[in-house]
TrEMBL record:
One of its GO terms (biological process) is D-glucuronate catabolic process. It holds the Pfam family UxaC. One of its GO terms (molecular function) is glucuronate isomerase activity. InterPro entries: Metal_Hydrolase, Uronate_isomerase. NCBIfam families: PRK02925.1 (NF002794). Belongs to the metallo-dependent hydrolases superfamily. Uronate isomerase family. Its EC number is 5.3.1.12. This is Uronate isomerase. PANTHER family: URONATE ISOMERASE. Pathway: Carbohydrate metabolism; pentose and glucuronate interconversion. The keyword Isomerase applies. Coiled coil: none annotated. Keywords: Isomerase.
């Protein structure tokens, strides 16, 4: 799905580099999409029902959008964001859309505007510029498209040319959607839609009902999760089930990057926590320890580990109290990697059988910490700029700050990390364009011959993520 309405979007403005960038971008514009990390609801593809109205599809679930309006005084309820206690919110898609369009100017210069505009034009073929005056016209045009069979999830998946899409599930998920996908020839090992093992809700002691979650983990697996040994056995068992559902990676969302091997103390900590007597510091220590346990499990079962530290969850307490998690109330914090990861790297960092993909919300660490680590340990690779950093500016700065020390081949390829299914091709397209511009500059400065730049951009867009996340071999 290459861009047609703005062919030079995001390519360098300088003419000689732009010409080179066009050539490089053309090599990858139509390549299949590898999406190894994201949060699309697998039910979408399992059930293949028509999408709801444009507001429910594009605005309500997108916390990048609702938080910006909230920062300017528009309440999430006015935009249809559900409440925890069931207090009614706006459900009329057209009203939500109009309210949003009144504030469209807030997104000038943001990646959200870019993604949404590209989604309108490239995915839906709607070229009318959004404004308060055109809100209804755009809404009606999008709604008409959503009613067509070609805009069902599976049809779009084909049109987007997605080769593989990974969703994210907790160990407590029964993977029923993935079973349905497998039955339809869409899922399972080597399938087009696979899952990812995300155990945060049974590893983070402060994650809501941790104890109840661990009980449930025991029920699902038939292991005694009253004991630490049983808990580990239960996690291993769920990983096997996830692998059978096509998973090739796990994902760990921690407050910090800290790792530690607690040894025999781990069981004592677990027992305390199970009795509701966790002590200050236990939450972080247990998560830090579990990363070593998960690394050991990975050595056995081959799951790639993704580590996503640095988000202070639910920083906006009011928002959390009213609307719960994942609605835009999270904020990044300073994240330290060099000392935090040392215990894990001491134990397994030089073992090429282990693969850890590191992400950050702290851009300062790219040059100082992450590139030197990934450039020096066999097990480490750098994940693409994520969440608050997934703008064209940071994608460009990522290449500028990590390539000198880590090169291209210690990076893991682009991840869209999105809940918004319709934005997937747009986001990958943005990354491909930025890489084309970066490589064009290397060619223009006589630092890289064109044929090697051409090979590199195909590697970055397609071969590398496929290899890193074990979706196939590097050819
Ligand atoms: Zn994610």
């Amino acid at each position: 799905m290459p861009t047609s309405t703005r062919p030079d979007l995001l390519l360098p403005a300088e003419p000689s580099q732009r010409a080179l960038a066009r050539e490089l971008y053309a090599l990858v514009a139509r390549l299949p999409i590898i999406s190894p990390h994201g949060h699309v609801d697998p039910a979408l593809l399992a059930e293949d029902q028509p999408f709801p109205d444009p507001a429910q599809l594009l605005i309500v679930p997108d916390h990048y959008l609702t938080r910006m309006l909230f920062s300017q005084g528009v309440l999430p309820a006015e935009l249809g964001v559900p409440t925890r206690d069931g207090t009614p919110v706006q459900t009329d898609g057209r009203r939500i859309w109009r309210r949003f369009a009144e504030h469209w100017h807030l997104f000038r210069g943001t990646p959200s505007r870019l993604w949404l505009e590209q989604t309108f034009t490239e995915v839906f073929g709607v070229d009318t510029r959004l404004s308060p005056q055109t809100a209804d016209e755009v809404y009606d045009a999008l709604a008409a498209r959503l009613a067509e069979p070609d805009f069902r999830p599976r049809a779009l998946f084909e049109r987007f040319n997605i080769e593989v899409l990974a969703t994210t599930e907790s160990p407590l998920d029964d993977l029923g959607r993935h079973a349905k996908l497998a039955a339809d020839g869409w899922g399972g090992p080597g399938g087009r839609v696979v899952t990812t093992f995300r155990p945060d809700n049974v590893v983070d002691l402060e994650f809501g009902d941790w104890a109840a979650n661990v009980d449930r983990l025991g029920e699902i697996t038939g292991e005694d999760t009253g004991t630490y040994a049983g808990y580990l056995a239960a996690l291993r068992s769920r990983r096997e089930a996830f692998i059978a559902a096509g998973a090739t990676s796990s994902d760990h969302g921690h407050l910090t990057a800290r790792t530690v091997d607690l040894g025999a103390d781990a069981a004592a900590l677990f027992d305390r926590a199970r009795r509701g007597r966790a002590e200050p510091g236990d939450t972080e220590a247990f998560q830090a320890h579990m990363l070593l346990e998960f690394a050991r499990m990975s050595l056995d079962d081959g799951l790639v580990m993704q580590l996503h530290p640095g988000a202070v969850r639910n920083h906006n307490r009011w928002l959390y109290a009213r609307h719960g998690r994942d609605v835009g109330g999270d904020v990044p914090q300073v994240t330290e990697y060099v000392h935090a990861l040392a215990p894990l790297l001491d134990a397994y960092g030089n073992d090429p059988r282990l693969r850890v993909v590191l992400y950050t919300l702290d851009e300062d660490t790219f040059t100082r910490e992450l590139a030197p680590l990934a450039g020096g340990y066999a097990a480490l690779l750098l994940g693409a700029p994520w969440w608050f950093l997934d703008s064209p500016e940071v994608l460009r700065r990522f290449r500028e700050t990590v390539t000198e020390t880590a090169g291209f081949y210690n990076t893991a390829g682009f991840v869209d990390d999105t809940r918004a299914f319709c934005s997937i091709p747009v986001r990958h397209d943005v990354a491909r364009r930025i890489d084309a511009g970066f490589l064009a500059r290397l060619v223009a400065e006589h630092r890289l011959p064109m044929d090697e730049a051409a090979e590199t951009i195909v590697d970055l867009a397609y071969r590398l993520p496929k290899k890193v996340f074990k979706f196939g071999e590097f050819s």
